[in-house]
Amino acid sequence: MSSKTKIVVLHMKEIIYTAIFAALGILLIILLVIMFRPGKDADLTDTGKQYTPGIYTSSLMLNNTNLEVEVSVDESRINSIRFSNLDETVTTMFPLIQPAIEDIAEQIYDTHSLEDITLSEDTPYTSQIILDAIKEAVEKAAVK
Fold this sequence. Notes:
By secondary structure, this protein is of the alpha+beta class. The chain has five helices and three strands; from the N terminus they run ααβββααα. It has two domains: 12-44; 54-141, Sufe protein. Chain: A (Alpha-Beta Complex). It has a three-stranded antiparallel sheet with strand order 1-2-3, with helices on one face.
């Protein structure tokens, strides 16, 4: 009986590289399963109603001038934000008020949220007052 003994020589560098690539492969598979698992979209979107559809207003006082912030919503999102009674005298006295509300409205449309809104550096206090009025109008629209 002649048995032929085979000797296999493994270098430690090759074993380490193989273990690292195997671990990375397993990590990639786990990440792909987590990212593309079914039901992920159901977790992120709220299927219930958030708002009662309609147009809601909130008052805002600037220099003894009463302004109305008008927020239009449907069941799931905010459609438009604007001043309902902005006249020429107010825009003359506060020239940055219209760009401030447009900037805030654009951020709300993009994020669909009233959180983490970046206020304008030119008019931080006016922007905060406008944002508070928008939040008040949205609270009126919220489903209870």
